[in-house]
Amino acid sequence: MTWDDTGFLLSKYRYNENSLIAEVYTRNHGKISGIIFGGTSKKIKNYLQIGNKIHISFSSKSESKLGYFKIEIYKALSPIYFDNHQKLSCIISVMKMVKLLSAESQVNTNIYQLLENFYLLLDDQNWIKEYIFWELELFKTLGYDLELEKLVDKKYIDNQVKYVSKSSSEKKIIPNFLIDKHESSVDMITLKSGLKLLSDYLEKTILKPNNLNQPIERLQFLNTLK
């Protein structure tokens, strides 16, 4: 079995002295693992940065066996942000999340398009806010739609509009920007509150039921916001 495709590098691990095992999320084949012979050489390793977009030639003797990658750089995306620790940390977190939550060899062009869109939002002035909506869309694409609008009541507290969860066990204040998407001015404290809400949802609804742990890369990204 052989094919060519483009994809985003999700992870890489040393296989032996000269080779790597890599995982790539591809346009037409979903998440695929393969061996890169010579992946530790100077010629190749410089563009094997997590998050880079690469062209892949894949070959395998059978679907049940680990295949082999021949790769070329398609677009060096991660190095653009080497001087921005926060954005680089976000890239690594995103790739880890997709690696963890997506199924092997299951095509999902929506996830691939989300990865394309992710790099566009990094250049937005309000990129952290846009990233929060991006993460919600990722959850929805994976089958976990939070549907916040249906889970809150609109209330007036101290003459201000507040959105309060309908849960009988725990009344949470939901950051307004997650409901009123036209709200433009959002401070960092509110953004962090939004990310905390998503972290709780990720933990309780997606990770724990599947016996998965919160990715350390995501926690490291959240720590850059402090």
Written account of the structure:
The protein has a five-stranded mixed beta barrel with strand order 1-2-3-5-4. The mean pLDDT is 90. The chain folds into two domains: 2-79, Nucleic acid-binding proteins (OB fold (Dihydrolipoamide Acetyltransferase, E2P), Beta Barrel); 124-223, no CATH class. 36% of the residues lie in helices and 25% in strands. By secondary structure, it is of the alpha+beta class.
Summary of the model, kept short:
The chain is an alpha+beta fold.
Helix/strand layout:
Elements: E1 2-14, E2 20-26, E3 30-36, H1 42-45, E4 53-59, E5 67-75, H2 85-101, H3 109-121, H4 127-141, E6 152-157, E7 160-165, E8 173-174, H5 176-179, H6 188-207, H7 216-223
Parallel strand pairs: 3-5
Antiparallel strand pairs: 1-2, 1-4, 2-3, 4-5, 6-7, 7-8
Helix pairs in contact: 2-7, 3-4, 4-6
